[in-house]
Sequence to fold (337 residues):
Amino acid sequence: KGGFEHFMLKEIYEQPKAMRDTMTGRLNAESKLITFPELNWTPDEMSDINKIFIVACGTAYHAGIVGKYYLEQLARVPVEVDIASEFRYRNPVLEPESMAVIISQSGETSDTLAALREAKRLGSRTLAVTNVVGSSIAREADQVVYTYAGPEIAVASTKAYTTQLLAMLMLAVYVGRLRGSLAEEKAEALATGLVSIPEQIHKMLEDVDQIKVFAREYGSSEDAFFLGRSLDYAVALEGALKLKEISYIHAEAYAAGELKHGTLALIVSGVPVIVLATQMDVYDKTVSNLQEVKAREAVVIAIGFEGDTSLGKYADHVIYIPKTDKYLAPLLAVLPL
Ligand code: M6R
Fold:
């Protein structure tokens, strides 16, 4: 366990290295270019893709939801995200112009493998995003992007998830440039921002005292809620899964705007609500949702950018993360979760 108390903690602390390994050979810090030599796609190959299906289970599925935002916003391709155990039985509409992106840490999850086979049977192109070299999914997909996270022993994914997000973001930048839908300057700015991410994660992991206080204070709660909009919502889904899996606390994630459609009834005095507020285009809306849960006397732990002076006025506690681009924020916002 490398001196750590357990494997999950070890793998949390391996994230800076894992992320550097995911970038190696793909992100050139000098030219600010993101490429995938193993794919070597051409603009023509990319321009006729009419739809991407991302298929996965559990944490990998949550990485796929973040991937949808990335691919739609940066590469302007319509994306559907499916749970593998649903996709394989629902007779989906795929064609040669579709691309199925299959995400799996192990490359062996049986529903995900079956979904890959179904996509191939329907004539779609297939790409595996996986960690395990030579796994069944890696072998059977047309093409593979390895995440190079190193062995996952803990079962509860941490570095597997963050490297999947990183791979999906780099893929979206790569496809966006090939399709001509992403401006050079934006692609370069994202590449530059990514170079700093491993060090930023390293620094965040050095100071976890605040997290320990929250664990002591709220560890005996029976329920917890995670709220966010846009990419923050996608990250909230993984936060809720991890809390359930590791602490046995019932946890739910909601798109913050969905709260008023019934769920607000569950927000009662003292319930911890973790609100992610890193997406500036929906920031005001998120803060107004935060105020709604505060009005019902929930305990609000907000996650926002350093320098944000307003969150502290409404939330009970704020966890600050380094200020970064909205597409890079999930890579940092998920750490405290
Ligand atoms: O190996 P896979 O990525 O295909 O596994 C899929 C899920 O079982 C997995 O992501 C699971 O949800 C996480 N390990 C939970 O932390």
